[in-house]
TrEMBL record:
Organism, as annotated: Bacillus cereus
Protein's name in the database: Peptidyl-arginine deiminase
Lineage: Bacteria, Bacillati, Bacillota, Bacilli, Bacillales
One GO BP annotation of this record: putrescine biosynthetic process
Signal peptide per UniProt: none
Keyword terms, alphabetized: Hydrolase
Gene3D superfamilies in alphabetical order: L-arginine/glycine Amidinotransferase, Chain A
Pfam families: PAD_porph
GO MF annotation, one: protein-arginine deiminase activity
PANTHER family assigned: AGMATINE DEIMINASE-RELATED
Coiled-coil segments on the chain, per record: none
Length: 348
C-alpha cells in the first residue's frame, strides 16, 4: 500500500518539480553577492557574528530563483568565493547594472585614499579572476548612488558633480548617458548631512515609471522638492511613499549616520524584493505595505545591528542577473532548488 501511495505521489510531484525548474530557468537565476572581511578587521570585528547571521539568514530565506555567493577567506555554510575583500559594502565598489555592467571609479570622499584604492584594486582583481565583462567609466561614482528604471532612466544625487569636479555638469551627464546607454539622467539633491549622499537611501524604481520614495523622516518639503525635480524630466513618474522608523540609537560611526529604520534601502532581484528587517515594531507593517505595491514577492531579511554602520540590505549586496554573469558562474547550481527536491524525496 505504501509503495502504491509513494508511486502515485511521485507521478504527481515529479512533473510539478520539472515545471518549477523550467520556470526558474526561464527567469534566468541571478546571484546575490556579499562580502565577509577577515575576523582580524578591527573596524568590523564587533559585527562579525552579525554579518555571518545576515548571510545565513539571507541564504535560508532567499527566493528559489536567487543564489547567494559570499566573498570570504573562510569556508562558510553557504556558497563562498574564496577571495580576500576587506569590506562589507559591495554595492558601492561593484559595477552598476543596466543592460550591461559599468564599472565606475571607486573613490569615495568619506574614506582615506589608501583604503578606497586598496578596495577598488581588490575588487577589480576579483572581477578579472572571474571573467566578468564590463564597461569602464572614467567617472567617479558609488554604486549605491545610481537607481535605474530598467529601461532608459537613471537617478543619481548631486554628489556626482562634487566627486567629478574637473568635469562640467553637461559632460558628466553626457558621459553617464553614453556609459549606461540611457537617454535620461535625473540629478536630485542629497539629503542634508548625509555623508554618503546615495540615491538608494532615497528612491527605488519598482517599474518603468513608478518608484518608492522615502518619507525623509517627515520632511515633506524636501520630499516634494525631490518629486518635482524628478517630474520635471519624467512627467509620467508616480511615487509611493515608504514610511521609515529611523533611530540613531546605537550608531557605530560618528561620521556615518545609522541606517536603522530606513526601509527604502531594499534589494531587488528578478522576482523578489528583499526588505530590511531591523527588529523594530514597524517591520511587519512596512513589509505588508511593500507587498501591496509590487507583484514580486517581498521577503524580509534581518540586517539588525549591521544597519547601525550606515547601510541596509541594498548596501550590503550586489545582484548580478544571469545574462550578465560570466560562464563559470552560470554553472553554479541553485542551492535552494536542490534543497527543495532533496527534502521532498526524503519525505517520500
Amino acid at each position: 500500500m505504501k509503495r502504491e501511495v509513494v508511486g502515485i505521489v511521485k507521478l504527481v510531484i515529479q512533473p510539478l518539480l520539472k515545471s518549477e525548474v523550467n520556470n526558474m530557468e526561464q527567469k534566468q537565476n541571478g546571484i546575490i553577492f556579499t562580502a565577509i572581511p577577515d575576523k582580524s578587521n578591527e573596524y568590523y570585528r564587533p559585527f562579525y557574528e552579525d554579518l555571518i547571521y545576515f548571510n545565513e539568514y539571507l541564504n535560508e530565506n532567499k527566493s528559489f530563483t536567487d543564489q547567494l555567493v559570499s566573498l570570504s577567506v573562510e569556508e562558510q555554510d553557504f556558497h563562498t568565493s574564496f577571495f580576500e575583500y576587506d569590506d562589507i559594502w559591495l554595492r558601492d565598489v561593484a559595477p552598476v547594472v543596466t543592460n550591461h555592467l559599468v564599472k565606475f571609479k571607486y573613490q569615495p570622499n568619506y574614506l582615506p585614499k589608501d583604503q578606497w584604492r586598496y578596495l577598488d584594486q581588490q575588487f577589480n582583481k576579483w572581477l578579472k579572476k572571474n571573467d566578468f565583462e564590463y564597461v569602464k567609466s572614467p567617472l567617479i561614482l558609488d554604486g549605491g548612488n545610481l537607481i535605474w528604471n530598467k529601461k532608459d532612466t537613471v537617478i543619481v544625487t548631486e554628489r556626482i558633480f562634487d566627486d567629478n569636479y574637473d568635469w562640467t555638469e553637461e559632460e558628466i551627464i553626457e558621459q553617464l548617458e553614453w556609459d549606461l546607454d540611457v537617454s535620461r539622467v535625473i540629478i536630485i539633491p542629497a539629503e542634508e548631512g548625509d555623508v554618503l549622499a546615495h540615491a538608494d537611501g532615497m528612491v527605488k524604481f519598482i517599474d518603468e515609471h513608478t518608484m518608492f520614495i522615502s518619507d525623509f523622516l517627515g520632511d515633506h518639503e524636501f520630499r516634494y522638492n525631490v518629486q518635482e525635480i524628478i517630474q520635471e524630466q519624467m512627467p509620467e513618474a508616480k511615487f509611493i511613499v515608504v514610511p521609515s522608523s529611523y533611530t540613531e540609537k546605537g550608531q557605530y560611526d560618528q561620521e556615518i549616520a545609522s541606517a536603522k529604520g530606513l526601509y527604502i534601502n531594499m534589494l531587488e532581484t528578478c522576482d523578489t524584493i528583499y526588505v530590511p528587517k531591523f527588529g523594530l515594531a514597524k517591520d511587519w507593517e512596512v513589509l505588508r505595505y511593500i507587498q501591496q505595491h509590487t507583484e514580486k514577492q517581498a521577503i524580509q531579511i534581518h540586517v539588525g545591528e549591521l544597519s547601525t554602520m550606515g547601510g541596509a540590505i541594498n548596501c550590503l549586496t550586489w545582484y548580478c542577473p544571469s545574462h550578465l554573469l560570466p560562464s563559470k558562474m552560470k554553472k553554479l547550481k541553485n542551492q535552494n532548488e536542490e534543497f527543495l527536491v532533496r527534502k521532498i524525496f526524503d519525505w517520500l
